[in-house]
Amino acid sequence: GSKNKTSLDDRNGTLLRIIGRLKPGMTAAVAKPALEGLAANLEKAYPVEQKNQTFITAPVSRIAVSTNPTAASGVKSIAPLLLGMAVVVLLVACLNLANMLLARGTARRKEIAIRLALGGSRWRIVRQLLSEGFVLALLGGVGGLILGLWSSDLLIGSMRKFMPFEIVWATGANPAILAATFGFCLLGTLMFALGPALKISRSAVIADLKAHAGEDVAQRRWKFLPRNPLVVVQIAFSLALLTAAALFVRGAGKAASVDSGLKPGASYLLEIDASLAGYEPKRAQELYQNLNARLAALPGVEHVSISATVPFGITSSDKNVQRAGVNRGVEAKPSTAAEGLAFKAAWNSVGANYFSTVGLPVLRGRAFTEAEATQPGPRVAIIDEPLAKKLWPDGDALGQRVQYAAENTPSGQRGGGAAGGTSAELSKEEKQDETIEIVGIVPVTRHDLFANEEPDGSIYLPFARGFQSDVSFFVRFRSLAPGSEASTADLLRRTVRDVDPAIPIISLQTFAQYLDSNLDLWLVRTGAGLFSIFGALALGLAVVGLYGVKAYSVARRTREIGIRMALGAQAGAVLRMIMGEGSIMLVSGVAIGLLLAIATAKILSGILYGVGAFDPIAFTVAPLVLITAALIATRLRNLERNYPLGHGKFFYVLRNIDIDVAEGEFVSVMGPSGAGKSTLLHILGMHDHGWSGEYFFNEAAVHHLKAKERAALRNEQIGFVFQQYHLLDDLTVYENLEIPLSYRKVGKSERSAIVADALDRFQMVAKKDLYPRQLSGGQQQLVGVARAIIASPKLILADEPTGNLHSSQGEEIMELFQKLNAEGTTIIQVTHSEKNAGYGNRIIQLRDGWVVEPNKK
Questions:
Q1: What is the arithmetic mean of pLDDT over 631-651?
Q2: What would the 3-class secondary structure string for 29-92 be?
Q3: Residue 426 carries which DSSP code?
Q4: Tens digits of per-residue pLDDT, 44-55?
Q5: Can you tell me the mean pLDDT for 471-478?
Q6: Nearest 5°: phi and psi at 270?
Q7: SS3 for 354?
Q8: Which range is least confidently modeled, 174-178, 273-277, 339-343?
Q9: Taking the model in full, what pTM does it have?
Q10: 661: DSSP letter
């Protein structure tokens, strides 16, 4: 029989594979003895052709793109990664929604407390909150299902352009997909809604009923921890996804510009298969020689050569090669000790002019002769440098002899690439241990994009020694004029038709077009695009989540920010505080994300071409993108307020105020509620900017000062006692007293001494580590007074300073003010108490925003 792979009666042929399916209930272990017996019978009947015949049991790959049904190739590596990225994006989205629900839940605390007070059970509240979350998840699931079906069709449509066979894809949502979508919606609801629902429903009814909307009663005890760990997790996952995206983009870029080692110049690639037109091997070989000569005679053609395989092709072949004259065995692990080891190498059979046609120089030795390429003769081969170094690491491979190992790598297994193919057939002589002389050494060539950066090596045989019917012709032109691609392709097509019109042309394209349509490259580019989309989604979700949490935090802390600015903090200091807290979350997330990114990079480095586990560009770009986006997300707005009515009009709560307060005076401002007393005090304290007129403070024209200059003046010379205490809930008594000193840049040791003295003066030493919510109203007022005078300001502004104190404490405070005034401190207080007003030396009466008595004694 013929040795040709297209001859079905040839037992040396490897065109077809026999695949069997086990019966239901039959296991691989049960089937193994029967398969071994079948192999033994075949070897007994055909001792040469079926020597070492084996049958294997293996699951059929669902994502194979080769003739080997068990080879999943590079798709097997990328598909789980893409699925993992989708899961991570889902997790980031769930964390984002959990943050949103927690923020909304804090604002709804009073509502929840009312429901509980009216008899609602905690489980009922939880069910309500979970139902609201499930509606969100269901809407997202429906949207995701529609987007998923559309994107799947888009991907399959894109893949069809690169596959040499038709892809059948069942479009539409089947019951399994619908059930999975519903399941993910339920799972997502539990992931993002259950935790917030349990936390929100755990309400302290009385405290929550009394709390102002948006006010958070809970205290954060561990200040060195980020305020929202969910945002930290979002940032971490987003960084891992961004790093993966950067690595894929880097890999795609390197793969697109990969140097296969070939320099074919202006070449066309023509693939034909004479067996499809009924040609037997001998006639087919004659046909190919005739066509080779006709193509070489075309005008402008520089070289022509035939080749069994093409780099990055859908078909590929490997052999295990070892030094001649040693015991056969396949290398288990790479080793520099080449003696007795077999090394995997890409196999190809080529024509005499192949190396000059593809621009691959023969470094040492010679190319194949025309006789070797067309007529069977002495066994010769050309190998590339990597294989030569593996076989003879300390010597020269030229003139040496090699042989094939007993086992050959199954087709489609090389390097994990997407391209599969047929295993190169060994002739009867090759199976009888005939050795091959190495007559030439060529540079390295690449055969796939998913292998490591160091190729396995290549071995080339003359085409006559490795004939196959499906072949490719490299046709190299001296030059091609721009826009001549179509006419050149028609010329090549007519040449084939002139030789035999029945010969089917499988493909005809320039070598550059062939590389662009390569399936491996498509996988890398698609992976880069998908990873980039997932990374961008995760980044967007993380930034939106971070922005939402910070915006909510700023809104919830508007009171705190106002207090800090009233105590002397400048806008920049408040901005740095909020940015600093955002930075804590950011740094924590980036630190965790880098660990995840390193683990991801180690996985991807084994798949992507030219990308190491610690690619410096990817590990620089991804964190920078995330940090930049996150910092932008923590911007503050609207930190100052005024009293505009719109259309250029303003509401004036004070009118035609004309007051002089001399340094060292103690002035009391009195009047009915709504008279404008507190507003006047806040204008004097430079808290309110929605006013017009003139205001001089110690000869400084406040009305001409910028906001920063007003803040500096307030910081240095004014102390303020607020009517509603306005202590910072997150800080202890000690820390609240420290704030004005820290804004005045008082040293730490001096600051500690001043605070200790204040605590002693106001008899609060035992309460220094308590939080405001742990103090009574009178105790909070004492802290507020102590904070106002702790930095020895020149002016004290006090808004109802004794309003929450019992009489004896009130007297102590007023006596303290009187003492400070005697020492030269100017004091202006707002009060309803005639008794307290009597401690001063002048009373200003207000009514409806007008001064009615400016100098009452």
A1: 46
A2: HHHHHHHHHHHHHHHHHCCCCCCCCCCCCCCCCCCCCCCCCCCCHHHHHHHHHHHHHHHHHHHH
A3: P
A4: 888 877 777 777
A5: 91
A6: -115, 120
A7: helix
A8: 339-343
A9: 0.52
A10: -
Contact (Cβ atoms closer than 8 angstroms) between residue 269 and residue 509: yes
Distance CA 567, CA 570 (A): 9
Both tokens of 690, joined, read 């929605």
Q: Give dist(CA 521, CA 254) in Å, integer.
A: 10
For residue 402, what are the β-bridge partners? 323, 436
Query: Using alpha carbons only, how large is the chain's radius of gyration in Å?
Result: 42
User: Which residue has tokens 């080997």?
Assistant: 68
Q: How many helices (H) and strands (E) does the chain have?
A: 26, 21
Query: Is residue 345 a contact partner of residue 405, using CB atoms and an 8 Å limit?
Result: no
Q: How far apart are CA 845 and CA 854, in angstroms?
A: 6
CA separation for the pair 532, 252 (Å, rounded): 12
CA–CA distance, 217 with 667 (Å, rounded to integer): 37
Task: Give CA–CA dist 107/115, Å, rounded.
Answer: 14
Place of tokens 């971070």: 546
Mean pLDDT is lowest, of 168-182, 275-289, 401-415, 830-844, for 401-415
Higher pLDDT, 838 or 214: 838
Angle of the 571-605 helix axis to the 707-717 helix axis, nearest 10: 110
In the predicted model, what is the mean pLDDT of residues 389-416? 70
Q: What does the pLDDT read at residue 336?
A: 44
Work out whether strand 718-721 and strand 700-701 pair parallel, antiparallel, or are unpaired. unpaired
Q: Are strands 718-721 and 795-799 parallel, antiparallel or unpaired?
A: parallel
Q: How confident is the model at residue 547 (pLDDT cuts 50, 70, 90)?
A: low
Give the distance from CA 593 to its chain's centroid: 9
CA distance 673 to 276: 102
Question: What average pLDDT does range 489-513 have in this prediction?
Answer: 91
Residue in 844, 849, 847, 857 with CA at minimum distance from that of residue 661: 844
Which among 434-448, 510-524, 749-763 has the top mean pLDDT? 749-763
pLDDT value, residue 635: 37
**122-160 and 175-189 helices, crossing angle to 10°:** 140
Specify the DSSP class assigned to residue 211.
Answer: S
Q: How far apart are CA 686 and CA 673, in angstroms?
A: 22
Tens digit of pLDDT for each residue in 341-393?
A: 788 888 889 998 899 888 889 999 999 998 888 887 788 999 999 899 999 98
| Type of residue found at 704 | H
Given a contact cutoff of 8 angstroms between Cβ atoms, the answer to whether 622 and 245 are in contact is yes
Buried b (16+ CB within 10 A) or exposed e, 560-579: bbbbbbbbbbbeeebbebbb
pLDDT of residue 314: 63
First to last CA, the chain: 129
**Residues 397 and 388: beta-carbon distance below 8 Å:** yes
Bridge partners, 473 (sequence order):
270, 306
Bridge pairing between strands 380-384 and 436-442: parallel
| pLDDT over 70 percentage in the chain | 70
**How are the residues of the chain apportioned to helix, strand and coil, as percentages rounded to the nearest 5?**
50, 15, 40
Lowest average pLDDT, out of 24-33, 160-169, 297-306, 799-808, goes to 160-169
Is 473 exposed, middle or buried (CB count within 10 Å of its CB: 0-12, 13-18, 19+)? buried
Domains of the chain: 97-219 (no CATH), 315-350+360-466 (no CATH), 644-856 (3.40.50.300)
Contact 196, 101 (CB under 8 A): yes
